[in-house]
Give the backbone structure.
Amino acid sequence: MVWPTLRGIYLSFTKFNLLTPPKWTGLDNYVRMVQDPVFWNALKVTVYYVVVNIAVQTAVALVIAVMMQRLTKRTWLRGIVLTPYLVSNVVAALVFLWILDYQLGIGNHVISWLGLDRIAFLSDSTWVIPTIALINVWRHVGYTALLIFAGLQTIPETMYEAARVDGASEITMFRRITVPLLRPIMALVLIITVVGSFQVFDTVAVTTRGGPVDSSRVLQYYIYDMAFGRFQFGYASAMSVALLVILVVITFVQYRLTRAESSDLA
Amino acid sequence: MATTTAAVPVVAKRRFGFGRTAAWAFMILVILLSLFPFYWMLRTALSSNNALYAGSDSLLPVQFSWGGFERVFGLQTGQAAIDAGGAGQPIQFWHYLLNSVIVSSLVTGGQVFFSAMAAYAFARLQWRHRETVFRFFLGGLMIPTIFTLLPNFVLIKQLGLVDTLFGIALPTMLMTPFAVFFLRQFFLGISREVEEAALVEGASKVRVFFRLILPMSSAPLATLAILTYITSWNDYFWPLMVSYTDRSRVLTVALGVFKSQTPQTGPDWSGLMAATLVAALPMLVLFCFFAKRIVNSIGFSGIK
């Protein structure tokens, strides 16, 4: 754990192609990174992906979790909601590649039945990132919902009973009880999902390989391509250090902003 | 729920009528969206490629055929496969399936065993700086996997394990911070008295661990094993880095390769969907047996 991390940092200061021993080059990799437009684009694309992915996923997961809490706590329902999570990203990506196919996909048939224009989901540069983000929402939303659901169980049922006796509606109870008491849990869930979301790779690798042009070249795919496509391990390591720093900063900021450590329940 | 509605029957019923219906409608939509892609895999896998073009908007299999599955398991001859819209190259899914089983089993066995030992050391044994080391270890949960993958690859390369199943399994089969943390929580909850009684009787710490601690925590160990198996089965990035040839190719990587072997006429959708179904099925079957355990393990004691 510690050793690979240190070694990763070391490699980021070297020129290394796997065949010859790493050669110390100081900050060269980092200078190159700052000047590399593809890197900045990859960062932009990744952030865009994370925003769409997390916004939709968290909102839908929250609704699913609250409804499971209020309607039925049966295991079968939670099981069904979790099912997509059991298949690999590769499987999810391939199925949606087929469902969203421009000519033959059932998704586009539905769109044309509704009288709208067909969408080239994965080969149009404006649609590609939202599409990949939603594919991953499909796979992960159940898992996120179950995490939130687990958090909901920590809110005492008596609070809802008391509110109901006072004549509060479901929506009022949601706003006044669920949201404030769930905040620390949502903070944790957000930290976990955002960190995971930044590391998107599988779906991109299987469906678009970064295209069209660079419009879905997310950071992790660029790093992989740099290391295994062009054998520039040093530069690839430098970029993964950058990714690590970004994640640590985001985690820290989120933690502070959402005051994850304090609960209103205490 | 039933108890609370019973407490305030009349008012609750009226107020919930519309809201509850809408909520159930939403849940049914969620269920449909979750399951539809699985149905679509099956429907496509059981259709013939040639008919898929004309009947792409049919909700049932078009021109029913086992061809997709036959291509996946290499039961069709090359020419027959090409005629049916496949890639012609033989694909040995049995082989990849076996590889996936080997890797996931190695990872699961190794990880559960080593993590259990480490967790026991963190939970029970007394040694200097234990808490500091543990905190350090937990910090490891925050390090993204990409960050250790490149150095790990260099290490595997130096060990000469590139393109072997063992090389794929090695990094995760030792232990992961998550697994150690997960098990430590359970070990801490085991009562000390039983353990001390055994020690007084003259059993060694090692004996206590194998004869007492492991059997007593079989439930969390099983949960961890299932979760690890699923994660390992679905992993794509690391096996993609390490395996180059058929020899060490696991199912996820094989699917990617299958997809890129697109024949001239267009993708072999029915073969591809048959392959994804074959890759997904073992985990779905596992889930049918252990759904309750898996669903209940997701929570804040075992956060991932």
